[in-house]
Design a protein that fits this description.
By secondary structure, this protein is of the alpha/beta class. It is built from 24 helices and 21 strands. The chain folds into two domains: about 325 residues, 3-Layer(bba) Sandwich (FAD/NAD(P)-binding domain), CATH 3.50.50.60; about 130 residues, FAD/NAD(P)-binding domain. Helix 4 packs parallel to helix 20 and helix 20 packs parallel to helix 24.
Length: about 625
């Protein structure tokens, strides 16, 4: 395999990046129409099964209730927070997980499209496997299996859910030493209730607010043909169900899919099996390697996976060692051994690593990342050429030209071969995207494509800037001491966090998240480390309190500044992101704009990154901190 000349490759990468940069940046997207727009954005899963019917009654909370923990979000982050708090000795009866969805699962509640699986090994992705004793049926579990496991976790820990309920605001009441939380029940005539809680844990993170491109003519198009987002899949239109990919109602239909990311690579093969003709509209191709799905073998599980107490944590950390930007010796154990650890090690450019990068060593750092990435990227491009053989021009357009750390790589065995089918057409827009809608379809490259069904595989809104404050993306106003809104602190020069889980001025508010914390392709591992950490902090704080019901815990300004100074010091690791095409990781090019603008904006952006030391370093820091037991940096009153 020939390796491209580095100078030529850098020029090609820059060319592909520049033609995709847009002045509207993140503003090119909008959220789905409101919940009142029932045919398009409603919850399609209400009433699916007896357990959910029971959950979607009034819920456990009543107006005026006083509880210990209110957790916003019932996906993996919320379940991990609740489960680790129960393990720390807190009562599940004093907790409630509130979610606008109709049940547990978070993104796995909303996403039920055909072909849905996790793209990280389920043995390390699914939470609490060791605690529940559950064995996933396959190396990459289906979305339905993951959603059902979320219900299993809730049952295991006795966690209660208040569903179909939207949190509106949480305001700290100094006199009560409680958070005053307003919420609205979405399916009972919009009844609003107020509850009081000692602790608020925002655990509504990412991949739950669907986004769509702002396209002229969109409303007229969807008045004429079915249009839906993959996170609101319309099985009435396609046929099938979350457990049956028989999309028989698409037979003979002209179907369009906008998007070629992690969702599309799973949807395209399923739709291609049934559609009369499928048009896949692409702005930027994704790296797509083989997944090599396999059933879980009972013997291998016992001897190679569940090897003893702590096996899941150890396996997760072993997985993350492959994203620290280092060259590992040949005998370094690879327990997961999949496309991530073998092909996508170049993702280190977005995850972090042990070396501290300074302005003097930035160029050396970037060269070191390229040394790891380039042969892997070329191998991935060769895989495209080997898989798409029907049309060399299509194979060329499906090849990505950017470092592998710029976008989340994908792994799917049927996506690339689907373009060999005569009923599948790639509509490559050469970085421009779809131009507009017509009453009959879409216009791309000046050509109108008439459609019978349009599927938006366009991903999710990303919280950036002040909207990166926990829960702010969901319109939840969190107001701390002295009437200051959390959003305002996240957008101000005094922004800082303690280990990414707490911020000064917002007592009894702790949260698993990304800013100031760790990064990993496996977000469950990130949320688990942070949930365990915040549970340990609260356990020690409660032990010290003469009256735990009046306990107030708050990080000091000195402690959060010291931690965020370290985050800033390590932020130049991510300087490699400047070479990236627009996407999630550089906020559609906004990161470059910050870097090239004022020094103050650049510094503020650096203080808001994830910890540049990488997952293993962050885990070691908080584990050693918790082991000391002194919760230094937190005030307990």
């Amino acid at each position: 395999m020939a390796i491209p000349d580095p100078v030529d490759l850098e020029a090609r990468y820059a060319q592909e990046r520049d033609k995709r940069l847009r002045p509207d940046g993140m503003q090119q997207y909008t959220c789905l129409p409101s919940e009142e727009d029932k045919p398009f954005a409603h919850d399609p899963w209400i009433g699916q099964g007896q357990q959910q019917d029971a959950q979607q009654e009034a819920g456990p909370l009543k107006d005026g209730d006083n509880i210990q923990f209110l957790i916003i979000g019932a996906g993996h982050a919320g379940l991990l927070a609740g489960g680790r708090l129960v393990e720390a000795g807190f009562s599940a009866k004093g907790m409630c997980l509130v979610d606008v969805a109709g049940g547990f699962g978070g993104t796995w509640y909303w996403n039920r499209y055909p072909g849905l699986q996790c793209d990280v090994e389920s043995y390390i992705y699914m939470p609490f496997l060791e605690e529940t004793g559950f064995v996933p049926t396959r190396k990459y579990a289906s979305g339905e299996e993951i959603r059902q496991h979320c219900e299993r976790v809730a049952s295991h820990f006795g966690l209660r859910g208040q569903f179909s309920t939207r949190v509106l605001s949480a305001t700290w009441d100094e006199g009560r030493r409680r958070w005053v939380v307003r919420m609205r029940r979405e399916h009972s005539d919009g009844e609003e209730i107020t509850v009081f809680t000692q602790f608020v844990i925002p655990a509504s993170t990412i991949f739950t607010v669907p986004r769509m491109p702002k396209l002229a003519g969109f409303d007229e198009l969807r008045a004429n043909i079915p249009v839906f987002h993959t996170a609101r899949w319309d099985f009435a239109c396609t046929g099938g169900s979350p457990t049956d990919a028989t999309l028989s109602k698409l037979q003979g239909k002209r179907v369009g899919i906008i998007g070629t990311g992690a969702t599309a690579v799973q949807v395209v093969p399923e739709v291609a099996r049934w559609a009369g003709h499928l048009h896949v509209f692409q702005r930027t191709p994704s790296y797509c390697g083989p997944r090599r799905q396999q059933a879980t073998d009972d013997s291998a599980w016992a001897h190679d996976v569940a090897t003893g107490p702590g096996w899941q944590r150890a396996r997760r950390l072993n997985f993350d060692t492959f994203f620290d930007g280092q060259k590992h010796p040949a005998d370094h154990p690879d327990l997961v051994a999949d496309g991530w650890t073998q092909l996508a090690r170049g993702f280190a450019g977005f995850i972090g690593g042990p070396r501290v990068v300074t302005p003097k060593t930035v160029d050396e750092h970037v060269r070191a990342l390229y040394e790891v990435d380039v042969p892997l990227a070329e191998q991935a491009r060769a895989h495209v050429r080997d898989s798409v053989v029907a049309d060399p021009a299509t194979a060329e357009r499906l090849q990505p030209w950017y470092p592998m750390w710029c976008k989340r790589p994908t792994f799917q065995d049927g996506y690339l071969p689907a373009f060999n089918q005569p009923n599948v057409t790639l509509v490559d827009t050469d970085g421009r995207g779809v131009e507009r809608c017509t009453p009959r379809g879409l216009v791309a490259n000046g050509v109108e494509y008439e459609l019978d069904v349009l599927i938006l595989a366009t991903g999710f809104l990303l919280a950036t800037g002040e909207n990166a404050a926990p829960a702010e993306l969901f319109g939840i106003h969190i107001v701390g001491r002295n009437g200051r809104r959390l959003k305002d602190k996240y957008g101000a020069a005094d922004f800082a966090t303690m280990h990414g889980i707490a911020t000064n001025g917002f007592p009894n508010l702790l949260y698993p998240g990304l800013g100031g914390g760790a990064g990993s392709p496996n977000l469950t591992a990130v949320f688990d480390i942070e949930a365990t950490h915040l549970a340990n902090v609260l356990k020690e704080a409660a032990r010290r309190a003469p009256d735990p019901t009046q306990l107030v815990v708050e990080t000091t300004k000195q402690a959060e500044d010291a931690w965020t100074d370290e985050v800033e010091e390590r932020a130049l690791w991510y300087s490699a992101v400047l070479a990236c095409t627009p996407g999630y990781f550089n906020h559609e090019g906004a990161t470059m704009q910050h870097a090239l603008s004022s020094a103050e904006k650049r510094r503020m952006a650096m203080r808001r990154t994830i910890h540049g030391g990488g997952m293993a370093m962050y885990e070691r820091i908080v584990r050693e901190y918790d082991a000391k037991g002194d919760i230094k940096g937190f005030e307990v009153s």
